[in-house]
Specification:
Pfam family, one: GFO_IDH_MocA
Low-confidence stretches: none
Largest sheet: 9 strands, mixed
Helix content: 25-40%
Strand order of the largest sheet: 16-15-14-13-7-12-11-8-17
Keywords: Oxidoreductase
CATH class of the largest domain: Alpha Beta
CATH architecture of the largest domain: 2-Layer Sandwich
Domain GFO/IDH/MocA-like oxidoreductase: 150-292
Radius of gyration: 21 Å
Structural class: alpha/beta
Bound molecules: alpha-L-sorbopyranose
Domain Gfo/Idh/MocA-like oxidoreductase N-terminal: 10-130
GO molecular function, one term: nucleotide binding
Number of domains: 2
């Protein structure tokens, strides 16, 4: 039994209960049972537009009450934190209103659908922080133990001067042209396609690991399938096609080159058409003293090449990142048992709750989310200008 259960409550409200809502619910439920937290998350209210559906989801996901209007959530005195798990077109409105109402905010990635919204959110977050109200953007892959070890090796200088960053995020869930429309394929709802949905992750991850930021990009975007069947039920994510077709208004794939602030050259690929790749995040970083390589499809392993090794014994070593001394691992299982996709969300809750209790600003901050948004915007501007090299303004 952890000590959390005797600590003051942190009353949480979750807005949205689809894939991300389910992953966040699991994290809010699980964190206090594996980590000693300074505050005890209480799953107080789940908000969704349809009363019957949100009532069913609340029972399944473990929430004590429901609301059908997120604005009502902000009026409740029994809500301390709002967790935004809605499509990107509502992130800014909900997060800014919640911060102004004095609620801490966790907002799913990408932070917003465009730079203007992200700037307004970062501004509201800075003002709220001055009043002790905290905010975080949900780049959960930072909290995979192997990613934490990668960042540590770079920070310790084990890779030396970073020369190359190579990152891919490969999925294939819409490679079939008969896969129906969804909100993720609608620019008005999602802001962009593979670029913002999964490209944002590899932009954030590579900046997090290297401690550097992208300063410019040259990009290509493509929409391979421009018309898709409408879903069987309005808003359905069931993947079942209905009558008629809809126009895809976002990118299916983004490919871009970049330069990092420390001088490294980078290549990025984010696609939903890598047939056979389900959720492959692949990162390789080459430095003057060493290299590292990570693949989320083998997420408990980090490959490390130590350039200080004599040539006769040098080679990429396969580090199984499951030792108690590795980031977060000590709270879970003995060495070699491994963690999964959901653990990053639990670690996100742990770090957020710990920062709130310590009256510190958690990371990644909304300012970090804004910087990623500026990279996404530069990619779109470059692609629209025949891949012209496009600088990223701070
Ligand atoms: C895309 O389908 C997606 O759900 C992303 O939106 C998530 O951020 C990623 O973790 C898994 O894939």
């Amino acid at each position: 039994m952890t000590r959390t259960l005797g600590t003051p409550a942190l009353n949480v409200a979750l807005i949205g209960y689809a894939f991300m809502g389910a992953a966040h619910s699991h994290a809010w439920r699980t964190a206090p049972h594996f980590f000693d937290l300074p505050l005890r998350p209480d799953l107080t209210v789940l908000a969704g537009r349809n009363q019957a559906a949100v009532t069913e989801a609340a029972a399944k996901l473990g929430w004590s009450s429901t609301e059908t209007d997120w604005r009502r959530v902000l009026e409740r005195d029994d809500v301390d934190l709002v967790d935004v798990c809605t499509p990107g077109d509502t992130h800014a409105e909900i997060a800014i209103a919640a911060l102004e109402a004095g609620k801490h905010v966790l907002c799913e990635k990408p932070l917003a659908n465009n730079v203007a919204e992200a700037e307004a959110m970062a501004d509201a977050a800075a003002k709220a922080a001055a009043r002790g109200v905290r905010s975080m953007v949900g780049f959960t892959y930072r909290r995979v133990p192997a990613i934490g070890l990668a960042r540590q090796l770079v920070a310790e200088g084990r890779l030396g001067q970073i020369r190359h960053v190579r990152a891919q995020y490969l999925q294939d869930w819409i490679a079939d042209p008969s896969a129906p429309m969804s909100w993720r394929l609608d620019k008005q709802k999602a802001g962009s396609g593979a670029l913002g949905d999964i490209g944002a992750h590899i932009v954030d991850l590579t900046q997090h690991i290297t401690g550097q930021t992208l300063t410019g990009v040259s990009a290509l975007l493509e929409t391979f399938v421009k018309e898709r069947p409408l879903p069987a039920a309005a808003g359905s994510l069931s993947g079942v096609a209905g009558e008629g077709t809809g126009t895809v208004t976002v990118d299916d794939a983004a490919v871009f080159l970049g330069r990092f602030s420390g001088g490294a050259l980078a290549s990025f690929e984010a696609t939903r058409f890598a047939l056979g790749r389900k959720n492959a995040i692949r990162i390789e970083i080459n430095g003057s003293r060493g290299s590292l390589a990570f693949d989320f499809e083998d997420m408990n392993v980090l490959h490390f090449f130590d350039g200080d090794e004599p040539d006769e014994t040098a080679g990429f070593r396969r580090i199984v990142v499951t030792e108690p001394g590795h980031p977060y691992v000590g709270a879970w299982w003995p060495a070699g048992h491994g963690l999964g996709y959901e653990h990053g969300f639990t670690h996100q809750v742990v770090d957020l709750v710990t920062a709130i209790a310590a009256e510190e600003d958690p990371t990644p901050s909304f300012a970090d989310g804004l910087q990623v948004q500026r990279v996404l915007d530069a990619v779109e501007r470059s692609a629209a200008a025949n891949s012209a090299y496009t600088e990223i303004k701070a």
